[in-house]
What does this fold into?
Amino acid sequence: MAAGAGEHERADPSIGDSRPAALVLNGVSKYFNEVCALESVDLQISQGEFVTLLGPSGCGKTTLLRIVAGLDRLDTGVVEISGHTSTSTPPEQRPVNYVFQHYALFPHLDVADNIRFGLKVARTPREEAAERVGTAISMVQLEGLEARRVDQLSGGQQQRVALARAIVNRPDILLLDEPLGALDLKLRKEMQLELRALHRRLGGTFIYVTHDQEEALVMSNRVVIMRSGRIVQDGTPQAIYRNPRNRFVAEFIGETNLLAAQATETAIIVRNLDLRIPNESNATGDVSLSIRPEHLRLDDGAGTTEGGRLSVGGELLDSIFLGSLYRHLVRLGDGTILTVQELATDDRDHAIGSRVVVSWSPSDTAILPG
Amino acid sequence: MPPNLRALSLLNRSQRRSYLPPVATYPSIGWLLAGLLIPVSVFFLFSFWETGVFTLIRTWSLDQYREVVTDDLYYGLILRTLLLGLTVSAVVLPVAYLGAYVLRFIISRGRRIILFLIVASALASYLVRIYAWKAILTPAGILNSALDSLGLISEPLTLLGRPGVTIALTHILVPIAMLPIAGAMESVNPDLIRASRDLGAGPVETFLRVTLPLTARGVLTAFVLTFVLAVGDYVTPQLVGGKGSLMIGRVIFDQFGITGNYALASALSFSLIVAAAAFIVGVLLCVRVLTGGARRFGAAVTTTRSRRLRVVWPAWVRRLPWGHTYLLLLLLFLWVPLILVLILSFNQLPIASLPITGWTLDWYREIFTDQTIRGGFGTSLKVAGLVVAIGLAIGLPTAFAVTRRRFVTKPALMGAVVLPIALPGVVVGFSILAMFRFLEWIPSMRSIVLGQVTLVLPFVVLIVMAALQNFNRNVEEAARDLGCTYWGALRRVTLRILLPIIAGTALIVFAISMDEFVVTNFIVGTDPTLPPVIWSIMNRRGIPPTVNAVASILMVVPLIAAVVYMTLTRRTQRRPDAGMDRALGEEEVEKGLPFA
Ligand SMILES: Nc1ncnc2c1ncn2[C@@H]1O[C@H](COP(=O)(O)OP(=O)(O)O)[C@@H](O)[C@H]1O
Ligand SMILES: [Mg+2]
It folds into this structure.
């Protein structure tokens, strides 16, 4: 049985800590008048990592990126970029580039001049600039559109210009603020894979912001989950999925079934359902049990469950066929509705309204505070 | 976060409430002090002094106010002027409202060009427009001579006087009143009206309960503008007023040139301001009380009658192009007088009458040899150039600071910025003159520039502010992120993107400066600009036909400026995602896909 994750758990030590830090945030807070956008955020990102910041809208993701880019002043804390304290360095002096949520392309410049902008400001020699712009344009597949006005581009093309305009400067850290948010689903899926490929090719540090949990799981091997200006959990997608730290994370990442329970020193008791399991965590008081739908199994009332599995009885409310999967909704004795997900391979047919037994393995149960 | 840290963070620089306005606004504040606030204060002081002939005796007294209040000539004039303001507003507002309404909701084709033609008529010189009405309405003028030659009248009609003043002021004020009303209507979604009809409200109730309340702010702004401009006008009553229509603006003006009683002029001015302000507040209060009534009335109309007695017009009546007809009439009213002046400038006969018997370019040739007119034109160009340069130099930083910085005194600053257009022109002009007299300075080109920059400042600040409020700051931040310093980003990106707006503002300021008369006429020295020159020519007995030629030039120049302005701003007015609309096709845009 898995318990809630420890306080300073780092997801995958093999990735980060061996390499020097690209970004360190230490106790960073930001207030807008009385509104707290960030509260004592600590975050360390190593060079070459692709980190995704995930959280609901308004949780402070944009604010965090803007503070890293130097576009917002912070109220407390320290920012370190590539080993230098940069807390009050102006944005133009940071080795960081930002891809804005709505691209913020320069409307008075064409595609090539937009991309060339940073090199021009830095007075890069003409030949070198031309070569780098050319490379960037081919990387984002914008060949042939160099002389186009940016307001004559589609959303996907504008997004690519914004990306090229940032990477052409070879920043230590590339900040991407929901860059795919305005694209339609198909284009978004394509761009997700392209961004991953781009990261492998460039080898820099990417910090990617999204509010879409599915996208977060696709994009990177380290996900930082934020809520109300705080970091709630930080780890690999697998670790977060298996061991969510609290109910918020459990519900935010993937789908889950939650059962209210009480923890004593020796056991965890779900009173309404007459369940009792040994308590191997250090949780006490009110807790929630989180079980993913795919870890639940449905048997008709007659069958017996194997030893060690937990089981509860209920009434089958509905079965939905999803191609490769079935989703069953089961109402338990106390009114709780569980979602059960099964592969559609076995053809057992459960009649709607019939009595069923839902079972799962104790090792697939996460115990969450509250 | 520990409480002490939190307290510290709340004291952070970015959060601290700032009381003083930002340094960027200091030039504007200084200019407003010198060009308006101090002069008006000095002028106000005058009203408490006694007066000799063209001198002031610096002893305190309330005699001037006593005279204003007790002499029925003066308080009668003030009342009559306020009534004129009310009459003009009562004509202008419905005409302008209907025009804006038709433009927004009735017609779908030609909206842009019609709105442009209406607004452009306002840019055609102020003096020329009054003069056009004089040429039309005088006993031997165009209208009478035309009616006479058609045999419709045996004796000339008396058209000057109160009707003439009302018509001329309506002509001047309708385009101005239409701007705030059209602006308010722009924000009324036609779907709201459809929704109201769909929910069972008749057209009258929909208008009273939906359209009118949603546009009320625009109407009130238009009312205040119309009223203040009508009340402060001293030129129109003089030119087309005839004997019976002396107005207070004219009396105040006469204290400047004829009687020289500055103390009385001051007392009259401030009595006028107080009376006008009280009048406006009174009208606004009445409107507030009445709007509740109007809504109840709307409800009563529908519930008691219109469901049963709704008039159903035959289809062919409804299909008539009412909207276009109305706008056509409005455009004719606005443009025919101006076109007449243009035609008369080529008239061989030196009198303003129709029909034209022969054509000539003599009058144009004559003005190019006339030293006074050429001198006036030269001064006008110099002044306008300076006013554009200074107005932008001090107005732009103010617009940036007001849009982007927070400070407690912002409302006061904005009040001071719009004050030059909120005060009657006769008061602004007289005040600057009064300050010069007080300091014993002689009016010159410097005084004109001082006054005109003050007058154009509200336009610069308000136009640029509107553009900055719509400006996507992320674009500027992107420039910083890509290596620009604060000033670099401003120069390479922000100002570059706003360039068409700034150039357009410069053109507007140039046109205003070339045309400004009401204030400038007080503060010209030996080097007058063109409008005062024309004014003095027009005031001679028997207006020479060269005036038609000068008037035509004065009218055409701002129109060209307006066309250039439209061309310059068209590109920036296009929606930023316009290109995407094309790329994605109309259907997806309807669904609100990109940047919804
Ligand atoms: N300029 C600002 N002024 C006031 N409040 C702001 C400003 N920017 C962000 N906030 C507030 O800070 C919080 C975090 O915002 P943001 O970082 O944009 O969230 P996210 O990007 O995660 O959606 C929100 O509550 C938002 O309302
Ligand atoms: Mg955001």
Summary: Residues 500 and 571 of chain B are 8 Å apart (CA to CA).
